[in-house]
Amino acid sequence: MHLTAIPSVDRISKSDFIEQYFKPQKPVVIQGFIEEWPAYTKWNLDYMKAVAGDKIVPLYDDRPVSHKDGFNEPHAKMKMADYVDLLKKEPTKFRIFLWNILKEVPQLQNDFTYPDFGLKLLKSLPMLFFGGTNSYTFMHYDIDLANIFHFHFEGKKEVILFDQSQNKHLYKVPHSLITHESINFSDPDFEQWPALKNATGYTTNLKHGDVLYIPEGYWHYMKYITPGFSMSLRAIARDPKNLGKAFYNIFIMRYYDTFMRKRQGQKWIDKKNEKAITRTNRYLRNTIS
C-alpha cells in the first residue's frame, strides 16, 4: 500500500482548516487544540472507571460478521469498572463502539466544549470508543459519510485512511460499509490481497490530546497499540453525492442487508465476501492487461 503520513499542525484557525483541509477533503492531525479542556487532564481510564464504573457497556470484538448478528449488535456486555480492569490487566479484543456519553454519563459533557471548526457539529452525538492492546476495527466507513473529528485520550492508536476513490483496490463488500474482514491492514498479505498494493491512503499514530479530522466518507482502520479511548464529534456531509449515499445507506441499504440476512442466512454473508474478492481481482486483472 502507498501510505502517506497525515500532516500534523499545532492548533489551527477556523479559516485555515476550512481552506487547507475541509474544502480539499484532506485529513489532518491537530495538536494542542484541546489543552484548555478539563478533559485533557482529567480523562483517562481511571477517571472513566470512577464516573461510569456501574454502567453496563456494549462490547465488540473482531469476529467475522454473522447473519445472526443484528445491525451494530454487541458481542458482550460488562460493567465499565470491570472492563477498565480488563484493559489494564491483559490484551483483549473487546472494544466499546459508539457509546453516547450524553445519554450514559451526562456529567462528562462538562469536561469539554464543542469546538468551532467552521462546521455545524451534531451536539447530540458525542461518541466514545475504547480498546485494549492490539484490538482493532475492521476497515470501514461511517453510514452517514460524516465529517469526523476524533479526539484521542490515553494510549496510542494506529490509524489508516482511504478515500472513496480507492474502493476498487480495497475488496469492498457489497451492500455493506466494510472491506473483506480477513484483511490485516496493519500487515497485509499482498499475495492473498494483491490489489491492496495499488491502494493509496494515509496513516498516523495518535497520542493523548491529538485531534484527527477524517473527511467525508473516508475509510478508516484503527488499531489500539496500547489501551486507550477516543471521542468523536461529527458534522453532516456537505457534498450532495455523499448526502445521497448517506440517505441510501441509512434508509435503504441497511434494511435490505438485514432482510437478506434473514432470508438467506450465512449464504448471504459468504456470497458478499466472495463478490468482494472477485470484483476487486477482476478490476486488478483488467488494469494489468
Describe the secondary-structure layout.
Blueprint lengths: L1 E4 L2 E3 L3 H9 L5 E4 L6 H5 L2 H8 L3 E4 L16 E4 H10 L5 E6 H4 L22 E5 L15 E7 L3 E6 L37 E7 L4 E4 L4 E6 L3 E8 L4 H25 L1 H23 L1
Parallel strand pairs: 1-10, 2-3
Antiparallel strand pairs: 3-11, 4-5, 6-7, 7-13, 8-11, 8-13, 9-10, 9-12
Mean pLDDT: 93
Instruction: Give the termini separation.
Output: 20 Å
Please, how many helices? 7
- Could you name the CATH homologous superfamily? Cupin
Largest sheet, spatial ordering of strands: 2-3-11-8-13-7-6
Largest sheet: 7 strands, mixed
Beta percentage is 15-25%
Helix content: 25-40%
Provide a short characterization of the protein structure.
Helix content is 29%, strand content 24%. The chain has 7 helices and 13 strands.
Describe this structure in words.
This protein has 289 residues and is α+β, with helices and mostly antiparallel strands. It has one domain (2-288): Cupin (Jelly Rolls), CATH 2.60.120.650. The protein is built from seven helices and 13 strands. It has helices at 14-22, 38-42, 45-52, 80-89, 101-104, 240-264, 266-288; strands at residues 2-5, 8-10, 28-31, 56-59, 76-79, 95-100, 127-131, 147-153, 157-162, 200-206, 211-214, 219-224, 228-235. The strands form three sheets. Strands 2-3-11-8-13-7-6 form a seven-stranded mixed β-sheet. It has a four-stranded mixed β-sheet with strand order 1-10-9-12, with no helix packed on it. Helix 1 (14-22) links the parallel strand 2 (8-10) and strand 3 (28-31). Helix 3 packs antiparallel against helix 4 and helix 6 packs across helix 7 (266-288). The radius of gyration is 19 Å and the shape is globular.
